[in-house]
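INPUT
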Amino acid sequence: MANVTLRNVRKTYPGGFEAIKGIDVDVGDGQFCVLVGPSGCGKSTLLRMVAGLETVTGGEIDIGGRVVNQIEPADRDIAMVFQNYALYPHMSVYNNMAYGLRNRGMAEAEIKTRVGEAARVLELSAMLERKPRQLSGGQRQRVAMGRAIVRQPKVFLFDEPLSNLDAKLRIAMRVEIRRLQRRLNTTSIYVTHDQLEAMTLADILVVMNGGQVEQVGNPLAIYQKPATTFVASFIGAPPMNLMSTRPDEIKSQLGGSAGEAGILGIRPEDFVITDQTPAGGVALPLTVEAIERVGAETFVYGSRAQEDQRVAATPGELPPGEVIVRLPGTEAPAIGQQIRVAAVRQKLHLFSGDGRKRLEA
Amino acid sequence: MQKQAIFQSKLLPYALVAPQLAIVLIFFYWPALQAVIQSFLLQDAFGLSTSFVWFDNYLELLQDRAYFEAIVRTFFFSFAIAVSSLSFALLLAVMADKPLRGSMLYRTLLIWPYAVAPPVVGVLWIFMLHPSLGVLSRYLRVLGIDWNPLLDGDQAATLIILAAAWKQISYNFLFFLAGLQSIPRSVLEAAAIDGARPMRRFWTVTFPLLSPTIFFLLVVNIVYAFFDTFGIIDTMTRGGPGKSTETLVYKVYSDGLLGGNLGSSAAQSVILMIMVIVLTGIQFRFVERKVTY
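OUTPUT
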């Protein structure tokens, strides 16, 4: 039972590289916080700082009302699940889970109860005597989970725990982790670069980029109102379409402050094929370049006409001039076909020209 | 994946391995064969007549008390050299494994002694610990130790063990350092989070994970102590005083070349050969089994 509070946390390496540039996050008791961002954004470093595996060069980390900056990892009352599981290869599954308890001088009978209980929950009871190398990836992952839960720590830390699993197992384990965390009601911080994992697991989502927090909040709120173009293109798959707009368009069509160039964002799923232009909305003529039919939905990759003055730059992941449209699986325009798509006013996202600020319509 | 090289001519591959084969045959198998033959022969004192005596040389050795003592002595030396050299090398490796400034420099310095030839090692240690020339000997005497390895057999043995172990530290250090660096950092971090203090972490995680390296080095060190200490013994003590530093290898040399008993010397070297085959066999079996914990 503990809150985790980060106050202006910074990390500067001896070479002068600033990995974490002042982060404030407040994770409430029992909440599941997910740190998400592209590789190199500092999310793992931040988690390791909470664990005590990296020194904190500025600010404060507070676990359960106690500043832990100078406290050894062992004394922070945390448990961590590593990306490569970091199981002790020479110990049996039982001993892997019992190790942390033995180090704390717990009675062997109590250890047996706890490990037995964890093994039962994680369906590892039949393999307690095996060595890690005799287990499959998913089983190893569960042992790593078991090692964390037997300790009954104040905080769980997860460092991309599912990235070594295949896609199917990843989904199963994702659900399992969430269920386990709900049941134990233990404050958790989870690092991932997978936005889908982030969306599905998080109570609080922290989107990071370049050592800074881009946005903190409820995952759906972030999805619906991304604060920057980075968040807009990182959260959601396929990414939001971003296109630059002229100042007069912002003023006349979309509201916003005059004389400011802006970036317009529209999610692929917010387009419909129509001949009409909704009031205050946006319509785009497109040439279909490619389609992807995945069954339930069809993704259309279209290019905008050259004379479309909106085309200037696309800060997101899309190549310039390309627009992704998500259609129901039943629709499938032919390649080369001209279509006209539109989005209503409520579905438009507007950002400042540098993409750092969301402009409310 | 295609691993086999394909040669146009059938003779080319043979031609390519021929130089290596020739070296092995001429310098290893031929002398070894000579030793085996010699071990069945007995020469008179002047080398005028030679007679075939079957296993008499071996039987005589087995009844020889001096030979038995040499075996015990060799095992003791090997054990002492291996243990002291391994433990000190491990200590150095653990310290050098820490990411500190200038680590490349001191890691390199720690590896250097391996490049020193055994007789040079002997000379170095003589200069430090010779009873009348030695730099350290003076201080030992100041401390009240009656240091004279030229007269005292135990001190001579200590000296040999020190010198031989010192030379091997670099080699062991290198392997230990590599072994330590191959232990995933996250496993040690997990242990730290699991509440294991550095000493406990070392004995419960690092040490067991190093056990394949330790076993490998143990075999290598024993082989080294058995055979490669000849140069050190020859320059430092010549097996003396008395026979207190005469190991099996040195005895082969002194009985054969100094004592002129070629038959017995050959029999001894055949026995050594068998020992080395056994040790190498153990090592190969072990190295092939990659995971042991």
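end of record. The radius of gyration of chain A is 24 Å.
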